[in-house]
Amino acid sequence: MRAVNFLSLLEAKRDGQVLNPEALLWFVRAVTKGELPDYQVSAFLMAIYFRGLTPEETRALTLAMRDSGEKLEFPPDPRPLVDKHSTGGVGDKVSLVLAPLLACLGFRVPMVSGRGLGITGGTLDKLDSVPGFQSSLSRERIIEIVQECGCVICSQTESMVPADRRLYALRDVTGTVPSVPLIVASILSKKLAENLQALVLDVKFGRAAFMHRHENAMELARQMVGLGRAAGVATTALLTRMDVPLGRSAGNWLEVRESAECLAGRGPADLVELVIECAARLLLATRKADSLEQARTAAREELHRGHPARKFRQMLAAQGADLEAFEARLAASETAAAVVEVRAERSGFVCDCDGKALGELVRDLGGGRLQKDSPLDYHAGVDCLAKPGQQVATGDLLGRVHARDNRLAEAMRARLANAINIGDEPPAPCRLIAGSI
Length: 437
Description:
alpha/beta, Transferase, Pyrimidine Nucleoside Phosphorylase, Chain A, domain 3, Pyrimidine Nucleoside Phosphorylase, Chain A, domain 2, Aldehyde Oxidoreductase, domain 3, 3 domains, three-stranded antiparallel sheet
C-alpha cells in the first residue's frame, strides 16, 4: 500500500470530503502500528465527529478494524455463536445475566466487552470487582472456556482488533463518544471478529445515553443492523429508553450483586424484561423458536430454573474468580467503607429518578472514569433506588450512597436526594423498549 500524507487525510475529512477505502485502511494500519501520535488521531476522530462518514466509509473503517488483528475461530458445534452489545447506560448490567442464560439456552457466547465510557459503567469494570476474576484471556483460553462453559465475558486479546483499543480509549477523553460511525465501527469490528451467527444490539436513547434523541438512536441501530447483516450476521436491534437507571443500583460491585439477585429470581422488573427480550430475539434469529412469544416464554422459564445462576458461577470460576470470596461478598450487606441513606421528606409518588445525574454521581464517587487511566473504586455507587411510579411515604428509603469515606458519602447525599423527585400523582407509564429493527 502506498504511503499516505496523514495531514492531507486529516484536512480532507475536516473539510467534509469522502475518503476512499484504501485511505481508511492505511489509517487503521497506522493506528495499529502506533505510527500516529495521539494528538493527530484525536484530531481525526473529532473531524469524523463533526463531518461524519458515509455508509461506505463506515463499512471500510469497520472491516479494516476487524482485520487489524486475529479473529476467534471456533470448532464445529451445533450450538450457535451469538452475542449482545449495548451502547451503554447507567445501571446496565444485562450482559452479566444474559450471557449465562444464553449458555443455558443452548448457545455459545464469546462476549468480548469493554470498559466504561463517560458516565456509563463497562461490563469488564463490573466483573473486575469480583475477587480473582480475570478479564484478560488468551485467544486459546477464550475458545476453551466458550466450548466448555458456553459463555465467556472478557476483553479483546492484545492481538484482537488492536486498532479499536487505542481509538476506544481516545474517544472517551476527547468528547467523540457519541459519533454514530465511530460507535458502529467500534462495536461491529469486535463482534464481527467473533465470527458470530447472530447478534442483538441494545441501542439506548435518553438523557443518560450517548444518543439523547430517539431519531439518532434509530439511525445508529439501522446502520449497525444493515452492516451486520451485510457481513453475514443475523443482526437485530432493540431501542430502549435510558432516562432512569436500569434496575435499582449503579456502581460496579453493586451491579454484580444485583445481577446475582436477578439470576436467583429476585431481579427488578425492568432488568428482567430487557434480559428476556434480548434472549428471545436471539432464539428467534437462530430459529430455535418459532415466534417471539414462544421465545420469551422459553427464556423466562430457563431464567427461573436456577441453571443460569450456576452457569454464571461456572464462568466466573473458569476465569479465575475466588467463588468462596465472591459468595462472602454477596452475603455482606455492604462493602463500601461508608454508606448513607436518603429518605423521603414527603409522601407521594416517585416522578423521576434522573439517570444522568446518578451516573455523574457514581463517576464522582470514583466508580467511573474522567480519564482513560483513572483508577476505580469498585465499591462506590448507589443502590436501593426508588423508581418512577413507586408510591412512598415520609421516611421511606429512596436510595443509598456507597463511598470510600463518610465525608464523601455525606457530600453526595444531597445529589442523590435531588435526583429523585416526588409528586402528588404517579407519572404516565413509559415503556422501556421503544421499538426494534
